[in-house]
Amino acid sequence: MLRFFRDVPIRRKLTLLMLLASASGVLLTGIGLTAYAWSSARANMERDLASVSSMLASNATGALAFRDLDTANEILSAMRAKPELEAACLYTAEGAEAAKLFASVTAPGDICHIEPGAAGVRVEEQSLVSVQPVEQAGERIGWLRLRASLKPLEQALAVQAGIMLTIVGVSIVVSMVIAFAVQRVFAGPILRLAETAREVSQTRNYGLRVQAYGHDEVGVLVQDFNAMLDQIARADAEIKKAEERFRLTVEAAPNAMVVVGRDGLISLVNTQMEELFGYPRAELIGQPVEKLVPARFRDDHPTLRKAFSSQPRARSMGVGRELFGLTRDGREVPIEVGLSPIETPEGTAVLSSIIDITERKRAEQEMVQLNRSLERQVTETARTNRELEVAMGKLREAQTQLVQAEKLASLGALVAGVAHEINTPVGVGVTAASTLQARAAHLRELYEKESLRRSDLDRFVTLADESTQIILRNLQRAADLIHSFKQVAVDQSSGERRRFALKGYIDEILLSLRPKLKATSHVVEVDCAEDIVLDTFPGAIAQILTNFVTNSLIHGFEGVAAGHIRIAIRHASDGLTLKYSDDGRGISPDHLPRIFDPFFTTKRGVGGSGLGLHIVYNLVTQLLGGTIQAASEPGKGAAFTIRLPAALVQRAAA
Amino acid sequence: MKPGMSWASCAAALVLALAGSAQAAATDDLELKVKAAFLFNFAKFTTWPPSKLKGDSSLLLCVQGAGAIGAVLEDTVRGRSIAGHPIDVLQSPRSEDLRRCHIVYVGAAGDSRIAQELETLANHGVLTVHESGEAQPGGVIRFFLSDAGRVRFEVNVTAASREQLALSSKLLEVSKVVNR
After folding, report:
1. Can you tell me whether residue A344 is helix, strand or coil?
2. pLDDT tens digit string along A99-129?
3. What is the secondary structure of A283-335 as a DSSP string?
């Protein structure tokens, strides 16, 4: 019923509503009034009957008491004035006697020959029956039974209902007339509104407006509708702009892009897409995307598509599987697809970015081949490396041997220097001893010839005294030298660790180097506090300084007449700094980075082994645990700075 | 009684009770019963002045002279009362007691004798009932037999008012009314 009513045109609705309202109003009023009339008439009738009953009963007491039938009949006949009364029956009842009909007045039909029944008013066979006890002086002497027809009442009611229905009919007609008049006023603007709305939705012309109307609800509706059209027009323009932007973005994308709607139909493609799949745009738009899926995957694709729609998030398609696209000419192109959900007015669509990975696949295969050949090469290289390692081992062995040899060589040079140094005092001693021996022999000869004179003896004693002093002094010197050389030699060769005063030790080293320096005009300056005591390998220090001095003499002072060497020792925050510098020719910048390399020499073939500074470097960094730095400017000399850790340094005990 | 007004139209149903009573008139017994019932009913339709009938005192129904009606009357009123008054039946009381009675049935024979008796009871608030041949100025109610042989009665309203008796209009309605 309501469903039907929903589809009825609004003007028909209005008419229907007015008809229903007026008809139901009149009908309800009529029914109400009729019901009220019926019930009040019924009540009136009952009251009437009751009062008539009690009056008749009261009047009939005498007749009943004295059995005066004539009077009884006379009294009962008074009710003939009431047409609705059908019967009046008077019964005697004295003491416990059963009721007996005494007198009656009835309409046609014998309706008094029944027991009066219980007292009260009730309905029997469409008639109202009242049974009233007749009492006199507190004693019941009989019964009165009245019966009134309800037919007159019903007839009056029928007349009333007829009038009511007539009024309903008239009011329906009147309200129809009014409704026809009103519907034009109400439905007119609404119909115009509906017409415009339909036109807007069909033509999508959001510029349309409904003609303005009054300021009642419909007028407001019209205004709101127009305002809504304004907004829709703006929003539509925005959407079109956004769509255009989106389209341009997709078009400008470097990859093939396709937008697929919820229904699986392609709604947008770009030029790359056309090129990749070989379809012109017109053959793709509106087609199911499965058109681009090879036949063997096609059946599963809608299911996968729905799975994505149910949980849309940007991801790659078919992770772990190889994907192929089917081109127009039936080729299968390996592709990679990225999926992104995009919200559209028609629901969530999918923006797919498709990359042709044919080239990449080829590159991958080439890469695989390349890798294989590389592996072969690596295998070979490994073999070569092993050979190289063997060679390297041999080389290292040779290097070690050479270092050892160099150490021996420097020891040899030391021995040579020692021999040379000792040679002088020993030679002087020998000369003095020889002179003393010759003089002693001559004295003996004179003594044996007995030609010895006092003067001869005096001269000999003087000479012997001088000679002995010379011999003693020179022997002492030789002993001193031997002692210090022994010390150096022992330190150099044994590598023994001990405590020593640095200044004295440096002096001893320089003494051992004197044979090299003696022939030159070079000066060695030592700037060292007397109280510095080291606890380390003195041989290492000796070898280091020996090598520095040797290098200065051989390289730095090549062609320099009077060079100056300075050895400065300073306390530093983290130990001791030993700075060795000369003012010789310096080291070429090309050579400077390589001077600590083993076998690096600029004097190969003329005596240089290329191991001197390498040994220095090893001793400083490995044996002493310090660092060494070289600095030089060509023509301005070279400087070496050695930093020794504090652990080596001890203040001289007071 | 209005004999001319009996209904021809009410054909079937009007008869039973009074027909029986009419036949009873043929026998003294039935007539006595009817008269006794009437005597009792008279009491119901009559109001005595308060001086005559106080609060809850007994209502005295008296029978003057001899007659079978006394016993029948006693049967009729046994166990009954009127408006809270118990009923006592006195038979042939002494004449001073007679004046205390509320209803006195004068059962004497002969009109003059009856008139004499009624005379003695006048002005004592007594509803006197008699059966003389004609109306008596002293008596209030007189029984007689109708043409149909039924027991009827006439009321002398002058006497009733003299005796300060208020008779119900319903009583008057079913009686013949005289002024003597």
Report:
1. strand
2. 677 777 776 667 787 777 788 888 888 888 8
3. GTTTSBGGGGS-HHHHTTHHHHHHHHHHS---EESSTTS-EEEE-TTS-EEEE
Whole-number Å distance between alpha carbons of A381 and A370: 16
Q: Given strand A523-527, what is the order of strands in its sheet?
A: A523-527, A564-572, A575-582, A638-645, A627-632
Burial of A138 (0-12, 13-18, 19+ CB in 10 A): exposed
On whether the CB atoms of residues A498 and A535 are closer than 8 A, the answer is: yes
In sequence order, what are the beta bridge partners of A628? A642
8 A C-beta contact, residue A438 and residue A467: no
Are B13 and A113 an interchain contact pair (Cβ–Cβ within 8 Å)?
yes
ipTM: 0.77
CA pseudo-torsion sign B63, B66, B69, B71:
positive
The Cβ of residue A632 has, within 10 Å, a number of other Cβ atoms equal to 22
- The mean of the pLDDT values for chain A is 84
Check CB contact under 8 Å for A70 and B171. Answer: no
**Residue ranges in chain A modelled with pLDDT below 50:** 652-654
> Is A535 at the interface with chain B, CB within 8 A?
no
Candidates A261, A309, A315, A313; CA nearest to A288 is A261
For the sheet with B103-106, list strands across it.
Answer: B81-82, B85-91, B59-64, B103-106, B127-130, B141-145, B151-156, B176-178
Q: Name residue A57's amino acid.
A: A
* Helix H or strand E encompassing A541: helix A538-551
The CA-based angle A325-A329-A334, given to 5 degrees, is: 25
How far is CA A498 from each of CA A508, A522, A617, A630, A654, rounded to the nearest angstrom?
16, 31, 21, 28, 18
Q: What is the pairing mode between strands A127-136 and A120-124? A: antiparallel
Chain B residues whose CB is inside 8 A of the A74 CB are 2, 5
Three-state SS annotation for A215-275: CCHHHHHHHHHHHHHHHHHHHHHHHHHHHHHHHHHHHHCCCEEEEECCCCEEEEECHHHHH
pLDDT digits (tens, 9 = 90+) for A398-421: 888 877 777 666 666 666 666 776
- A62 and B16 within 8 Å at the Cβ level: the answer is no
* Contact predicate A262/A309, CB 8 Å: yes
**Is A69 in CB contact (< 8 Å) with chain B?**
yes
Q: In the structure encoding, which two tokens stand for residue A447, read together? A: 């003594």
Could you identify the residue written with the tokens 């079109």? A240
Neighbours of A133 (CB within 10 A): 17
- Give percent above pLDDT 70 in chain B: 84
Q: Which one of A56, A69, A111 makes the best mutation probe of the B interface by having the most chain B beta carbons within 10 Å?
A: A69
Work out the average pLDDT over B158-163. 91
DSSP state of B2: -
Q: How many CA atoms lie within 13 A of A181 on its CB side?
A: 6
- Closest-CA residue of chain A to B47: A137
Contacts of B170 in chain A (CB under 8 A): 58-59, 61-63, 65
Substitution target from B2, B6, B9, B14 for chain A, most A beta carbons within 10 A: B14
Tell me, yes or no, if A98 comes closer than 8 A to chain B by beta carbon. Answer: no
Whether pTM > 0.90 for this model: the answer is: no
Which three-class secondary structure state does DSSP give residue A523?
A: strand
State the Cα–Cα distance between residues A637 and A566, nearest whole angstrom. 11
Give the pLDDT score at A488.
58
Please report the DSSP string for A581-644 in residue order.
EE-SS---TTTGGGTTSTT--S-TTTT--S-HHHHHHHIIIIIS--EEEEEE-TTS-EEEEEEE
pLDDT at A372: 92
Distance of residue A152 Cα from the nearest chain B Cα, in angstroms = 25
Q: Do B174 and A137 touch (CB under 8 A)?
A: no
Q: Which residues of A touch B34 (CB under 8 A)?
A: 67
Do B18 and A74 make contact, defined as CB atoms within 8 angstroms? no
